From TrEMBL:
Region of interest: Disordered: 233-253
Domain of life: Bacteria
Family assignment from sequence similarity: Belongs to the membrane fusion protein (MFP) (TC 8.A.1) family.
Protein name (database record): RND family efflux transporter, MFP subunit
Lineage per the UniProt record: Bacteria, Pseudomonadati, Bacteroidota, Cytophagia, Cytophagales
GO cellular component: efflux pump complex
Residues covered by the CusB-like beta-barrel domain: 93-165
Pfam families, per the entry: Beta-barrel_RND_2
Gene3D superfamilies in the record: 2.40.30.170, 2.40.420.20, 2.40.50.100, Helix hairpin bin (1.10.287.470)
């Protein structure tokens, strides 16, 4: 209606009061839409807690919760993990290298063979990747790590392995049974072995070196390849005593 009281015939006209009310209603609707969108986002974030996502694919090796159990962030207390996930396609082999062999160890990238008790007679290999660059003060050894491909899953995490590495040694170094090395009461600081030469026992002074395995040790002394040594109770055999070497029995005898 125009100021003079007549009705306007022009389409789309609206009074200032109606326009203000329409704007207020629009702003209220926009606020409601924004509030509803915020609630939707909050609901989506909460729904993410309904799904446990792992950072990588693997095998669940331990489950510390059951269906229906109440779980949460721990409320500031240290909480046990829900699951333990393992990717065994590539394993990490850790080896403690004795101090005496640290300077002779392989370089990163070298292939290193090893065996495990679960597969006797089979040899596996890993790649030397990194080393600690420091010695453990407790056991005087350096920790090195190797990556082991395990696509078929035959090797299991936690297995013990025996690493086989041929280290350079001195020309006079010989590997002998640990039981063949002894010390005499009159010279406890001097290690010896008993060599059988021309049918008689001969005491040979040696210096003990690196422990090669549970049964063998490296010694340095006047020994030659092929020398026959007394393996057991060598300290009971006097120097110069006649010795008869027993011939090995045939298989099945």
């Amino acid at each position: 209606m125009d100021p003079d009281g007549s009705v306007s015939e022009e389409r789309g006209t609206i009074s200032p009061n109606d326009l203000e009310q329409a704007r207020a209603a629009m702003q209220a609707d926009q606020a409601n839409v924004q509030a509803a969108y915020s609630e939707l986002q909050a609901s989506r974030e909460l729904s993410n807690y309904l799904v446990v996502r792992a950072p990588f694919g693997g095998i669940i090796t331990a489950r510390n919760v059951s269906v229906g159990a109440l779980v949460g962030p721990g409320a500031g207390q240290p909480a046990a993990p829900l699951f333990s996930l393992e990717n065994s396609r590539t394993l990490r082999l850790e080896v403690a290298v004795p101090e005496a062999a640290v300077g002779q160890w392989l370089q990163p990238g070298a292939r290193v063979p090893f065996t495990v008790a679960a597969f006797p007679g089979q040899t596996f290999s890993g790649t030397f990747r990194r080393n600690a660059s420091r010695l453990s003060p407790e056991v005087r050894s350096e920790l090195v790590e190797m990556e082991v491909p395990n696509a078929d899953g035959r090797l299991k995490a936690g297995m013990y392995a025996q690493v086989l590495v041929a280290l350079p040694t001195a020309a006079d170094a010989r590997a002998v049974p640990i039981s063949a090395v002894f010390t005499a009461p009159d010279a406890p600081q001097q290690a010896r072995v008993v060599r059988v030469q021309q049918g008689r026992a001969q005491w040979v002074p040696v210096r003990k070196g690196q422990l090669l395995s549970r049964d063998s040790v490296l010694v340095f002394g006047a020994l030659q390849p092929g020398d026959e040594l007394v393996r057991e109770q060598a300290d009971q055999v006097p120097d110069g005593q006649p010795v008869t070497v027993a011939k090995p029995r045939p298989a099945g005898a």
